[in-house]
Amino acid sequence: MASGNSASITGKNSDPSELRIVLIGGRRGGELSGKTSVGNIILGRDAFDTNRTTTSVMRQEMVSGRQVTVVDTPGWRSSHPLDLTPKLIQLEIQQSLNLCPPGPHVFALVVRLDLPYVGTGMSAKEHVRFLFSDRVWKHTIVVFTVADKNKMRPDLIRSNYQLRYLTEKCEGRFHVLNINDRGDGSQVTELLEKVGQMVTSNGCHYETEEHVSEELKEKEITIRRRAEQRRADTQRQTTGLPKDVGLTDIRTVLLGRQCSGKSSAGNIILTGSGFKVNRGGQRSVQCEVRQGDVTGIHVTVVDSPGWWYNSPLQDTSEMDKLEIQNSVSLCPPGPHAVLLAVPLDEAFTKAMRVAVEEHMTLLSQRVWSHTIILFTHGNRVGNRSIEQHIEAEGEDLRWLVDKCGNRYHVFNNKRKDDTQVTQLLEKIEDMVSANTGGHYEDDGDEKVSERKRNIEGHVLTFMTKTHRQRTALKALFEGERQSLVDVRLMMVGGKMLDKNRAGNHILQQSVFTETPFKEFKTQTKLTECVRQQRHVSDRTVSVVNCPDWSTTTPPSQKTKDVLLHGVTLCSPGPHAVLVTIDVRSSFSEADRRSVEEHLELLGDRVWRHALVMFMWGHWLVERRVEEYIESEGEPLRWLLEKCGDRYHVLHGTKWDISEVNVLMEKIEDMVTRNRGHFEPSDTTVNTSVRDTGHFTAEEWNRREEEWKKREQELIDRMLKFAVKDQEKTTLPAVRRRHSMDRFPPSMSGGTKSEAGSSYRWSPDRKVSDWLKRNPGPIASSSGYDDTMSVITQADIDVMSVRDEDVS
Questions:
Q1: Predicted pLDDT of residue 323
Q2: 75 and 115, same structural domain?
Q3: What is the pLDDT of residues 763-804, one digit of tens each?
Q4: How many structural domains does the chain have?
Q5: In terms of pTM, does the model score above 0.85?
Q6: What is the per-residue DSSP string for 521-587?
Q7: In percent, how much of the chain has pLDDT > 90?
Q8: Are 542 and 531 in contact (CB under 8 A)?
Q9: Are residues 39 and 175 located together in one domain of the fold?
Q10: Are 434 and 534 in the same domain?
Q11: Under a CB-based contact definition with an 8 Å cutoff, are residues 473 and 669 in contact?
Q12: Which residues form the domain of 594?
C-alpha cells in the first residue's frame, strides 16, 4: 500500500483481558526466521504449520487468563527490497489486519539472530513503512529468534548497525527468544510483559483508516475479476483443438534466469533426470540433454544456462549467449516447446521483463509462438490461483503472458507427481495443434556450431601460449625469483561488490563491506580509496580498494588524483594492480576503453604491473576461464595481451587459501620480471641514497629510465621469440648458458630487492654488453634467430605448471 496508509493512534484504552498480535518478518533463502514458531510458543501449542506460510492465518488461545489472538503472515525475503516481494504477498500482509478486528495491539517483527542478517534492517524498514505506515513502529516490538541458547547474545544487537536501527525505530523494545526451548515458559512471560507495557503506554490498538481498507477491498475485487476473465480466455483458447495430435515424441527446451527453478522442473518432468540444480554455486553452464518416457511419450528435455538474475542481454557473457542459442539444435529437428521458467517467489519487475524479452531474441521472433511460461515454486502461491498472481503483478507479467499466447503452467517444485507433468504435456500438445503440428526451427544453427568450434580451437591456442610463456618466464629468471614477505596490492575497475569480495578473499577476513544484493537501493558507493592489511600465509598483505569508475564517463583530474592516492596508500608502490572483471557479465568495447583510459592515467608502465583478476569464478563451474576469454572476443583479448597475459580466477562463494597462494606466486613472478614494484611515471625518484658519481640527479634519472626501458624491451623480445620458437614442430638444439649470461642485465646495480637479495649486475653493465657476449643474427619478426632461444622443449617438459597456473 502506498505511504498514505496511515493509522489512528486515538481510541479507547485497550482491554487488558485481550491481546491481539500480528507476526511479521522476513526469511533468508530456505532458512525461516522462526516467525511461525514464535506464534506457537506464545499460544503454547502447534497452532500454526511451521512450513512456509503463504496466506495469513489467525489462531486464538487463553494464555495466563487472557484471550490472545495471533495472526501469522507470509514472510518477505529479508535481504530483498520491497519491489521484489510479490504483490499478492504484500496484499496478504496488509489484509492480515482484518483477521483481528478492530486492529492489532502489537506487531511482532521477527528477525533471526543466529543467521546472516545483512540487509535485514533496511528491508524491514521498507516493507513495514510501505505496507502499513511509519506510525506502526509505535506498536512494534522486535523479536530476535535463535535456535541455540548459546547464541542469545544481545551484544550482537548493539554492535550491528542494522539490528540496532530496528530496535531504535521501536523505541528500544526487543526480546530474544529461543525457538527450540518451548518448555521455558519464562521467556514467553517476559515477552508478554514487555508487550503489555507497550500496550499500556500506547493506550490504544493500531487501526487502519477506513479509506485504506476500502482501497484494499477494491484491489482484491479487481484482481479476482480479472483472474476469472483470464481463466475463461485460457479455456476458450483450447476449445475446438484436437485433443490427440498423435505425438509420441515431445522435445522441449528449458530457458530462464539463474535460480528460476528450470533445472528442478526438468528433473520433475523426467522424474529425476540428473540436471544440475543451483546449490552452492553449481549451475548449468552448458546445455544438457536428458530423455525419458512419460505416460507412454518419449520426452526430450534440454536444459540451458541461466542468465544472471535480471541482467539485460548486453551484460550476459558471450559464452552463455552461445549456449542458449545452441540449445534448440540439441533436440533435432527442433523443440516442440520452449519452456520459459518464471519463479513465483519474487515479483516480476520491469527489469525482469526486459531481461526475458532480450534473451529470447537470441533465438528469433518465431519462438514466442512455441513458448509456454512455466511458473515454478508453485508451492509458494498458497490458496491463491495463478491467474490472481498474474493479475496482481501488473502489466509487466501480463505482457509476458500475452506475448506467449496466454499459455502458462504451474509447477510445484517441492512435489513430484504425475498430474502436473501430464497436464503440461497436454498443454504442449494443444500448442503444437495450434501451430498446425509444427515445431520450432532456427536458421542459425550451423553458424552457432561453427562459432563454437572456432572458440574451442582458440582456447587451445591461447592456453598453449600462456603455458609456454609462463614456463619461459620461469626459465628466463631462474635463480632470480623474489619471495615477497610484504605484498602491496591495488584493486581497480569492476563494481564495489566485486572488489570488496575479492579483497576479503585475498585477506581471508571480512574487512571490506559487502552489499548483500546488487539492486538494494540503500547500498553505498565507494568514493575514496580504502586500505586494509592482514597477515596471510606468512606474508603481510595490504589491499587498497579504489572507487568504481564509469564506463560511460571519461576520467577526470579528480579520478587521476584518487588513483594516485591509491598508489600512495601502497607506499612506496603496489606490487600489482589487480583489474577485477566479473565473469558473469560480458566485457564490451566500452569496458575495454574504460580500463585503458583509467590505467593510463598512471602512465604506460602500469601495464607491466597489471594482472586481470576474474571474479565469481564459481559461475564457470567446470568450464575454464579461457573459454570465457575467447568467447568475449577482441576487447578482452586486448586487455589480457596488454597485461602480459597475466590473469587469475577467484571463487565467488567461498574463501580458498590455495587460490590466494597461487595468486601470490603469480605476483612474485611478475615482480621478479619487473625488478620491483610500480611507481607512476611522474613520480620523482629519490636519489639521496644513491651515489650519482659524475651525473647530476636529473641526468641519473633520465639515464636510468632509458636503461630500464631498453632492458624491458629486450625481455619482451626474448619472451616473444621463446614462445614463437616453442610453437614450431621441431626445435633446434639450444646451447645452455651459464646463469650469468642467461639473463639480461639489471640497471639496479647492487641495490637490494624487497625480498632481501641483491641483484647480480653492476650499474655500469649495459644491455649492449650482454648482447655482445651473446651474438646472433637479428631476425625480422622476433629480434633474434633460433640460436638465441633461452628455453628448449626439454625445459617445457620438465617445468610443467599446474592447472591453477594456467587459469
A1: 93
A2: yes
A3: 334 433 433 444 333 332 222 223 223 333 333 343 333 333
A4: 4
A5: no
A6: TT-----S-EEEEEEETTEEEEEEEPPP--SSS---HHHHHHHHHHHHHTTT--SEEEEEEETTB--
A7: 46
A8: yes
A9: yes
A10: no
A11: yes
A12: 481-670
